[in-house]
Amino acid sequence: MSPFTPSCPLTSDPDTLRARAREAGYLFLPGLLEPEPLLTVRREILEICARHHFVSREHPLDDAIAAPGVRFREGDPEYMVAYDEIQRLESFHAVAHRPALLGVLRTLFGEEVLVHPRNIARVMFPQNNRFTTPAHQDYVHIQGATETWTAWFHLGDCPLELGGLEVLAGSHRAGVLPVRAAYGAGGLGVETEQLGLEWHGGPFACGDVLLFHSLCVHRASDNLTPDRVRLSVDFRYQGRSCPVNDGSLLPHFQRLSWEEIYRGWRSDEFQHYWKRHELHLTDFSRRWHESRDAG
């Protein structure tokens, strides 16, 4: 595996930045975000984890040490109850709108940015590697415009052993790949050996951002620590003039309404903001999910 190629020096050169994006399908932006807002979200998520007994009370909360024997994952009832609380965090949703991040995306798209409100947080337990997110493409889950990009970053530092994200550089040029059933988030995987491409990855410092195209194959690496929980986020973006799937404007998992999520927020700046724009909405197709189920 090769290390990520940093793209921060290109943010003031739109043509070169876009050429890098077209070639690699990803942009790695070390130190793009100020750590303080990310650490605030981290602390609030860990407080929720503590209330639900996900993390050990015998260690400092910021260490994110998993409680003995606790290995929940998305879909488990205990996980989802805690996740509802995470979805209600105003600070979590606000981080998706950080000006430094939107500035890079505005340069990339050459137009104003639509921030998808369907924001995703991941609480990944150690010693649970059967459910590590497999190699996949986001497009089959997002749909709408293929020129939708995901921002992935860790809330805090993420050394290699904690299990960051890896991308298959250039894989977005292969189009939508056939899917198969897989464990891990999304439940869909793809085969990559036939592409003959190279994986890129590496450690993340707090504030580093990985941006990647909706067709760029990516995967998580295993959390190899004995006891640490990994906290990360997935935010999605596109040019405002491009079509967007209507499901991308709904809360993640749709267990809560926007009104339930917004209850108690101090500001309405990031509430229903997408309704201020005239958007081209598209329907969601289940053909990839049906092909997985048929197989």
- Can you tell me the overall shape? globular
Largest sheet: 6 strands, antiparallel
Percent range of helical residues: 10-25%
Average per-residue pLDDT, rounded, comes to 94
Q: What's the end-to-end separation, in Å?
A: 31 Å
CATH architecture descriptor name: Sandwich
Under CATH at level 1, the class stands as Mainly Beta
Task: Describe it.
This protein is α+β, with helices and mostly antiparallel strands. The protein has one domain: Jelly Rolls. It contains 8 helices and 14 strands. The strands form 4 sheets. Strands 2, 3, 4, 5, 10 and 12 form a 6-stranded antiparallel β-sheet that branches. It has a 4-stranded mixed β-sheet with strand order 1-9-6-11, with no helix packed on it. A two-stranded antiparallel sheet has the order 7-8. The protein is globular, with a radius of gyration of 18 Å. The model has no long low-confidence stretch (mean pLDDT about 95).
Task: Summarize this structure briefly.
This protein has 295 residues and is α+β, with helices and mostly antiparallel strands. Helices cover 25% and strands 18% of the residues. The longest helix is centred in the first third of the chain and has 17 residues, at 35-51.
What topology does this entry show?
Blueprint: E1 2-3, H1 14-24, E2 26-29, H2 35-51, H3 77-87, H4 90-95, H5 99-109, E3 113-115, E4 120-124, H6 139-142, E5 149-154, E6 165-168, E7 180-181, E8 188-189, E9 199-201, E10 209-213, E11 218-220, E12 230-239, E13 244-245, H7 258-262, E14 281-282, H8 287-294
Parallel strand pairs: 1-9, 13-14
Antiparallel strand pairs: 2-10, 3-12, 4-12, 5-10, 5-12, 6-9, 6-11, 7-8
